[in-house]
Amino acid sequence: MALWIIIIVFLLLLSFHHAHSFYLPGVAPQDFFKGDVLKVKVNKLSSTKTQLPYSYYSIPYCRPQEIVDSAENLGEVLRGDRIENSPYEFRMRVPWMCNIVCRIILNEKTAREFKEKIDDEYRVNMILDNLPLVVPVTRLEQDSHVLYQHGYLVGRKVWYAGMKVEKYFINNHLIFTVKFHKDEQLDSARIVGFEVKAFSVKHQYDGEWSDDTRLTTCDPHAKKLVNGSDLPQEVENKKEIIFTYDVEFQESDVKWASRWDTYLLMADDQIHWFSIVNSLMIVLFLSGMVAMIMLRTLYRDISKYNQLETQEEAQEDTGWKLLHGDVFRPPANSDLLCVYVGTGVQFFGMMLAAMIFAVLGFLSPSNRGGLMTALLLLWVLMGIFGGYATARLYKTFKGSEWKTITLKTAFLFPGVVFAIFFVLNGLIWGEKSSGAVPFGTMFALVFLWFCISVPLVFVGSYIGFKRPAMEDPVKSNKIPRPIPDQSWYMSSTFSILIGGILPFGAVFIELFFILTSIWLHQFYYIFGFLFIVFIILLVTCAEITIVLCYFQLCSEDYRWWWRSYLTSGSSALYLFVYAITYFFTKLNITKPVSGILYFGYMLIASYSFFVLTGTIGFCACFWFTRLIYSSVKID
C-alpha cells in the first residue's frame, strides 16, 4: 500500500511540475484594441477583523448614474460577493492622470461610517476583465519576491501621542496599473494584471468648486502628481473629500493563459513539501504495522487455528479467533451507524470528485464561487451513493424499515448543518452584511435539498435494499460472549482519542493554509498538494483503524462497529481544538458576532470532517474483519 501511495504521489508531482495553464470551457480571453473602454466593477468590502462583508455602496463612495448588479452564481452569493458597476472607466493603453471621480461633503453619519470601516480594516475589492484588484507587497527579506493582497484599505488610523488623539485618513487617490500582453500581429492586447497603490491626499484647488475645476495637488499639465509626501485627507464631519485616480498601462511578457500564476504563486512551497514528507512518514510507519499484522501475525494465527483438530483445542486458544461467534453481532444504535456511514460515503464522493475536477483545472480561480457551487451540486448528486451505502449496511443488520432509515440519511446531517447555517445567517442579517444569504438563494438551497438530494437518496436506498444482503463470514451465537476486563490502554475512550492523532497529524500543516485562505482572505489554489494530502489522509485513517481494531479483537472485545467509526472520526476533535488555537493566535477578531460566525462555521467543518474520516475508518475495519474471519475454518 505504501509503495502504491509513493508511486501515485511521484506521478502527481511530476505532472504538476510539467503542467501549464490552459483555456477552460466557457472562460475565453477578450481582446482589446487601443482606446477600447475598460469598465471596472466593484465587489464587496471585506475585513479579516469582522469577517462580515458589505456592499461597496454601503458607504458613501462615488456612484455611477445607475447602479447595475452583475449576475452572481450560487457560490458567489454564499461567499458574500456583490458585484456592481462603478464610475471608474479606462481606455485601453491610454494613460490618464488626476482624473476626478466625484466630490463629497461628509456629515456626521457618513463620517462615522467611514471611521467604522477604517477601524475594522476593511478593504475595497474591484474587478477588471475578471481579474481581482491586488496590492503588491514586497517582502523585506526577499526583495525579489512580490506577494499580492486582495484589495486596498479604505483608510488608516493614526495615533498622535503628543496630542493624545487619533485621526482617520481615507485613501481617496488610487494609482491603477493595468498590465497587458500585446499581440504584435493584430495590435490587440489582453489584460494580464490589475494592481493599485492607494494614497490619502487632501486635494486643493483655486476658487469655487465647479465641473471644470483643476486641482493644484494633482495636475498633469503642471507635472504635479500625487506621491506619499502629500498632506493626507482626514475623515471628519463637514470635511470635503475629492476622489481621484491615475491609470497607467504596462506591457507584460505574461500570457493570458498564465495570468493567474502570479497571484497563485506559492511563497512558501517548502512548507508544503515538508507537509507531504511528514505525512508520507506516517503512512510508511502505519503501512509497516499493517503489513506485519497481515503477513506475519494473521497468517500464523490463521494457519495454526485451521490446523486444530478438535473444538476443545480451539477453546484453549485465546485472542481474536475466539470472537467468531460474536464479532458480527449488530451493535447498539445500528440504525444511526448506517445513517452516518451512508452520509460519509456521500461526503467522500463529493470530496473526491471535487478534488479531481480541481486538479484537472476545471475549477478555475477566475470562476469566483465555482468551488462552492461545485461542492453543493456534487453533494446533491452523490446522494444516490449515500442512500445505497446506508441500505446495504442496514440490510446486513437484518433491518426491514428501509424507508425510515433513508429519511434519516437524507435529513440528519444536512438538517444539522442547515440549522447551524440558518442561525449564523440570522446573525449576519442582524449586522446588515452582504454576506447574509437572501431569501431567493435560501429557497434554492432548500429546493436542491428536498427536490433533488432527498429523491436521489431514496433511489440509491431502493437499489441497495433490493440487492441480496451481505452474508457474514461466520454465524453469530445466540448468547453474547462475556467481555473480559480491559487494560486502561485498551479502553474505548483512550483508544478512540489516540486513533485521531495520526490522521490529524497528516493534514494539520495543509490545514493552516486552508484556514489562512478562508479567514485571512489570501489566495489558495494549490489543489495538487491538497489532493496528495487527501490520499494520505484516506490511507492513514484506514490503517490506524485496522491496527487498533486488531488490538481490540486480540483483547477479546468484539464491540468494534462504533469504535472503528469513532477512532478515525476523533480526528475532528483535534481539528476543532486546532481551530480554537488558530482563532486566538492568528486572528484579530474582536466583535462577538464575528467570533460566533467563526466557531459556527468551524463546527460545521469539524462535523463534516468527523463524518468523512469516521466512514473511511469504518469501511476499512469492515473489510478487515470480514477478510480475516472468512479465512478461518469454523466447524
From TrEMBL:
Which top-level group of life is the source organism from? Eukaryota
Record membrane topology = Multi-pass membrane protein
Q: Name one GO biological process term.
A: protein localization to membrane
State the signal peptide span.
1-21
Q: Where would you find this protein in the cell?
A: Endosome membrane; Golgi apparatus membrane
Q: What is its main location?
A: membrane
Q: Which Gene Ontology cellular-component terms appear in the entry? A: endosome membrane; Golgi membrane
Keywords, A to Z?
A: Endosome, Golgi apparatus, Membrane, Signal, Transmembrane, Transmembrane helix
TM annotation in the entry: 273-295, 337-363, 369-389, 410-430, 442-465, 496-520, 526-553, 565-584, 596-624
Q: Which family does it belong to?
A: Belongs to the nonaspanin (TM9SF) (TC 9.A.2) family.
Q: Which PANTHER family match?
A: TRANSMEMBRANE 9 SUPERFAMILY MEMBER 10, TRANSMEMBRANE 9 SUPERFAMILY PROTEIN
Q: What is this protein called?
A: Transmembrane 9 superfamily member
Which organism does this record belong to?
Answer: Centaurea solstitialis (yellow star-thistle)
Source taxonomy: Eukaryota, Viridiplantae, Streptophyta, Embryophyta, Tracheophyta
